[in-house]
Amino acid sequence: MSKSRTKAQGTRFAVVDFETTGAGPGDRGRATEIGLVIIEDGQIVDQYESLMWTGAPIPERIQALTGITPHMLDSAPKAADVMREACARVGDACLIAHNAGFDRGFWLEECRLAELEHPEPAFLCTLKLSRRIHAEAPRHALSALTQFHGITLEGQAHRALADAKATAQVWLRQEARLKQMALAAGVSAEALTAPLDAALWDRVQHAPVGAWW
Fold this sequence. Notes:
Strand order of the largest sheet: 4-3-2-5-6
Order of helices and strands: EEEEHHHEHEHHHHEH
Low-confidence stretches: 1-10
Oligomer: single chain
Helix content: 40-55%
Distance between the termini: 30 Å
Radius of gyration: 17 Å
Structural class: alpha/beta
Largest sheet: 5 strands, mixed
């Protein structure tokens, strides 16, 4: 798999959320469901969801959390086929996830197992961003941020599309906040709507505010 691209084209983002059998792709951890929400120029233009069959066992505690049972996966498409569809929809968009390290790990592993040559995309983490630009929020878990931002959850929590939709709404509010901060810092709004530089988002997530632009 190739190295991360330094740019995502235009203002196109793909919010991704996985439901899985465990906390990481190692030790037989596999995806059971994916949700995608495509954002272009600040508008949600597409969405995709699918259960994913891998044959991996689902611990009872995970079944209780997500409501996804082995029986539900019996007729689900194979994970490789789902990932091919997901990659086609994502294209060269920058991926966004809440606690992105988790979803990034499953994205890369499921692409690898599917023998896909999809380049590793830039990943933006709404959890890290929230801690940087919404320090006034009492907590930064997705459920807490939906309450903080007044977002109505569409669907069942801990299901992939519902969580991806919630994350998309969090991101749209974060994007607006970033633009306000850029303008306050004397940076033109166009600087944030130009083709995204992955290094910029890395600075936003880790560097002092004055060093972002």
